[in-house]
Amino acid sequence: MGKPKRERTLKDNEARAVLRMLRTSPQKLNLVASAIRGKKVEKALAELTFSQKRIAKDVKKTLESAIANAENNHGLDTDALVVAEAYVGKSLVMKRFRPRARGRVGKILKPFSHLTIVVREVEEAA
């Protein structure tokens, strides 16, 4: 006897991909995530491909994963997908110390963050 199956938290026309423990600050990651929020999937992928930000490569990989989840797991049409949500969460912060002048110490913070991308299938208005 196993556990009962958990109810699906997303709607039937949505799919999600989550990237955890991404080694960048949530503030920097949110700049890239807000650039693709609400856009069609093809346009968002093109914008991430040509972005100058280092973290855009990881965001693109997560978006491609969400698209693959929508197509393979939920049978959604990839041409009608829109980035419904792209939000960033704060994770742990590694604390490191570096010796400075006159016996003092410099604190170095190395933040991590989580990224969640939800894509939604929308009907074309004809």
How would you characterize this protein structure?
The structure is a single chain. The chain has 126 residues and is an alpha+beta fold. The protein has a single domain, classed as Alpha-Beta Complex (Ribosomal Protein L22, Chain A). Strands 1-3-2 form a three-stranded antiparallel β-sheet, with helices on one face. Helix 2 runs antiparallel to helix 3 (56-72). The chain has three helices and three strands, in the order E-H-H-H-E-E. It has helices spanning 26-36, 41-49, 56-72, and strands at 14-22, 81-99, 105-121. Keywords: Ribonucleoprotein, Ribosomal protein, RNA-binding, rRNA-binding. One of its GO terms (molecular function) is rRNA binding. It comes from Maritalea myrionectae.
Fold blueprint:
Blueprint: E1 14-22, H1 26-36, H2 41-49, H3 56-72, E2 81-99, E3 105-121
Antiparallel strand pairs: 1-3, 2-3
Helix pairs in contact: 2-3
